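Hi team, as promised in this morning's meeting, here are the two structures we talked about. I've kept the exact order from the run log so nobody has to guess. The first one is mostly here for context; it's the second one we should focus on when we meet again. Sequence first, then the predicted structure tokens.
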Amino acid sequence: MRRDEVKIEDKWKLEDIYETDSKWEEEYSELAKDAERPLEYRGKLGDKATLKEFLSLVDALSLKAERLYGYAHMRKDEDVSNDKYVGMSDRAMSLYIALSSSLAFMEPELSALPEEKLKEYVAAPELKEYSYMLKQILRVKAHILGEEGEKLLAMAQESLGYFQNTFSAIDNVDLPLPKVKGEDGKKVQLTHGKYSFLLASKDRSVRKGAFQGMYGAVKSLINTIATNYTGSVKHDNFYARARGFSSPLEQALYMGDIPPEVYDNLIEHVSENLSVVHDYVRYRKEQLGGKLNMYDMYVSLVEGADLSLDFEEAFELVKKGLKPLGEDYQKLLCRARSERWMDVYETENKRSGAYQSGCYGTHPFVLLNYSRTTHDVFTIAHELGHAMHSYYSDSALPYSQAGYAIFVAEVASTVNEVLLLKYLLGETKDVKLKKFLLSYYLDMFRTTLFRQTMFAEFEKNAHEMDLNGQPLTPASLSDMYYELNKKYYGDGVTHNDEIRYEWARIPHFYTAFYVYKYATGITSAVNIANGILKDGKRVDNYKKFLSAGGTDSPYEILKIAGVDLKTAQPYEVAMKEFADTLAQLKELK
């Protein structure tokens, strides 16, 4: 459709941020004039009253920058070919960078203050809303090198940090992806997007061709990719040691205020329970018939099962699935529809995919590209989970505390998906649909909990190899990954030689120790959803979690919802959920 063909109620109301583009231009001009005002406070943050004044100014300017960029990028995403909004989005980002540059002195200057002065700031009632931020600065103070050391590291970062850009160029431009057999039997140009689509094909020869085409291309550049990743690992290890950490894993967890036991616990408890994944792999082999290859892991086990609902029907279904979250949550879902928080349908030149965005002081916004599929129904629930997390935190807290950490960002969205799925399983009498939903849930576990934990173990091993003086070569990295693949998937699948190169096409590896958050996120969500369904009183604690923003360590905030990731219990619950789901699927004929 063209955008002017979409009903008004199906388009988000960005006028709730700026009534007109001219209002945006007015605020842009105001911020452009004020972007360097923070520099007036440089060297003066040792005075409590001045610090309070400074932080209030920072909040006001940062909120304007957030509003400017939020509005512009969402207008641009309505039509990515619209030069006006592309330009506004670029201008907003440039201004945001300029403001960030003028704030660059803040953390080093505060870190340089005496410990007693920082403790005084943490305890000061007038600085209460900044107490966690100040605690963090106090906590990492021992790892700040001083003005000259910090200046040197900052200068080195630009020249030493190009590995992500290099990988992006290889992956998106230089990778020699071939033409392969498509669904209709004709040759199609393989792309990253088409690869996922072709791996889900019912035609095994299409899956095989896409798999071999992708990894043939990766293997042809494996020396370059391995050298680039080795440089990235050495970069991580250098910066960790420069700051006095034993490893970049320790640094990543410490800087994120996550106990180190969380990472170790994840790998340990997943490794101890891999027999349930191996059982599922053997079940897939039985259902698909013949030899099971790694390129057969993404094809659906159930044909012809789909909800195929109009959006209004899908939205009502989502509301029913989320009823356990209480009446106030239901009212917010209704507001999301009646107040036009959502942009529902695909239109010409609209950005693909789905996301939740917005800015403090207005309600959240959700971009969808809804079509009549089961996946899109779950996407509604997922993105509204993000929206409600933002709404609860923004409503409960000042701007300085409302933002939540990435560590907990996928929890609320996945809780919604689990609740919806369990509602559908309880309601449907259609055996084929039930099998489809159970299979969908198992694959969610396999790809988000088990596969991401395998990635996390690979990252840990690669960095330890370099720290221990072991060479990182195409062979050593690929052999190590191949052994992990065999460990995680078991003997029910043929470990095709090409899979040893899978590590070389994972962009997240260039942002070290990030992927484990997907695995802890789904583990937490399953525990929370099951807890709510067993005891409705747990909803109150869950909403306290949703309202906690960034007031404490994300680990401590998760404990409010009843999840302690330093213990075995959350993983035991998740593994039992996976095993029980597989048992239900096996019972259906």
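And here is the second protein, the one for discussion:
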Amino acid sequence: MKNQFLLAIFALIALSLQAKVEVEVSETVELMSILSRTAGFEEYNMDMGGQYTKDTEAWFAPFKEHPLISYYQSLRENYGIAYNAPASLAVSLEVEGGKIKMVGKKELLDDRWFNVDLNDFVARLNQFYTDTRFHEFFQQHQAFYNNVLQQYQTNVMKYFNQDWYSRFNGTEPGEIFRLILGFTNGGSNYGASRQVQGQPKESFSICGYWTHPQMGSVLDPKNAKQHAVPTLIHEFNHSFVNPLQETEKNAAILGDIPQRLLEQDFSIMSKQAYPEPKTVFNESVVRAATIIYMMENGFTADEVETELMSHMMRGFKWMPELVTALRDYTSHRNKYPTLSDFYPQIAKVLKNYLDAEDKRMDKILKFKQSSNKPSATTSRLKAEAMETVELMGVLSRLAGYEEYNMMKDNQYIQDVDKWFEPFKQHPAIEYYQGLRQQCYIAYDAPMSLAVRLAVDNGKIVKLQEEAGDTGLDSRWDPVNMNEFLGLLNQFYTDTRFREFYQQHQSFYQDALKAFNNVVMPSVHPEWFDDFYGKPSSGLKKVVMGFATSDGGAYGTVRHLKGQPREDCPVICYYGFDKMAEIPEGMSEAIANMITGMFNSSVDQSSVNEDKNLALLGEIGTRLLNNNPMLGYNYGYNDGSTLMNASLGAAAKIVFMMENGKTTQQVGQELANEMSSGYTWMPELVAALRGYASHRNKYKTINDFCPQIVKVMNKHLDTEQKRLDKALK
């Protein structure tokens, strides 16, 4: 009993003195990360470590059939062991006498590990550690680790004011903070905790490392301040913020607010590994506190605004209100000695925000469900397969693009992985990964090029387009197309891609037949001709992307030389060869999505008319300036393109309202569009509903553009006031 008392005293002393944070490398973190990479976990296969990634692949590729690998893959499939879960276990492991052992309390592990026999797993891990000579690999790279750690100390830690945290929070941290670089993690950052018997609890931030031939390293001075520094500031905040919500008093004060925050955008939060209410709330407070840190520690106004807006674009739309609240907290510390004392005000601010958002959504969703349902007709449109779409889909999957690695549970994808696995180190892959980092070639950008490619005498060529009317995604603008096509042709030849494509023709045709029979008859692009008051100006085709993703679609437009303009969305494969397995209502939802995507040819011709371009261009530019991630994600390089896409998305929702969809279905679609970054969608949908109700006054969408401008200006002015209040 006496010894336990002394240990507790020593722990308290250690916490009160809180040693200076130093960046570290961890053998067990590297072990679990490299194990995850070898097992094919896409989040550990970003392959952004330069020569270190090449060394890792060369050393561990021979062990992809190790007994642990298939077992570990089954843990991912059965229990979701992925993303931060490997890191959670890694910090509770240590190497002692050449053996891996558990040292942390099991209770602090990510709860996904509770389903796993840890003694058995650690025994298997020890076998992998021995068989792969992991310690030898780790020792051989000590000079590399030390060099990178020194860069971190020089270029990142100089911005780190550790004393600020205790002053801001009014308390000492409830745990010891430790910082580890994850050299296999690429752009991902993970948090984890452990508590060794008789020692204080430790909170770990495992920060990803990346480097690129053109962009340089994340730790180069410019990149460090933009990427690494905010991550460090953010993660250290968790040591102070997370324990506050655990108290009964604060939990009672917050009530259902954390749950309501999560429900604001469950999809985008879960994609960021924030599936629980308390996590979303803590992340919110931590992010707002990071903004305050930057304001008080010499960051420029532009840097602060960029950081704030980046959080809003990640789904934390309430950030201006929370930052404003924390600025009030810092101005009244005599009234609120600690951040915990300020919890009632945080709850009040967030409740007001949530109530206002509910009213904003309710205004749109209080509509009378229409009994009108377009009759199913035999569509003239038939979905088709395209070899170049499959080629770009496979290339993106092989390069580790996470949006092209969401699908696993079907035979075709298993065939893809088996056939192309030997080519993961092909020169085209490394070059293509560089394009993602440098030009953000991702999501729909690969498909935008794919529909402009063709196979001519066994060679991949780019088709000619009408001068001045190319719809190629602007992210391809800085790319040397001849160089890329040269590497793509080499990949096409070396992988025997044509042979793979031909072998799967019967699969493609069976899937397309089912899709065309069940889905395409419910596609109604003619609705938009009537809605916009003018006919569409181009042809329409649907392309099925079998290797693109697990659901969704990528919109593409092309205007080949001597041919009419074409809308040709690439629809991701859902398993259409087995239509009996498609959930009820899903085929209709997919048809509605395609119908909506086909309105762009009508819509774009409206926006691009001179008088409307002048009216809407400024609106689109303001939207783009407030939401720059939309430019990176979707390739919007001008305001008219963004407004075209926004109007199309809003019109699709009006189509659903007028064609028998329920409030729940419309609400889900509205939420999906807002999750994609179109946070102004409620206002725009309301405007288009007004247009639909007054067609005697507004014959075409062109006539209604001044009203759209008025509505959007009002929305933008309101948003600017929110930002100004937080930042000025």
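Starting points for discussion:
Residues 1-17 have pLDDT under 50 and may be disordered.
The longest strand covers residues 176-182.
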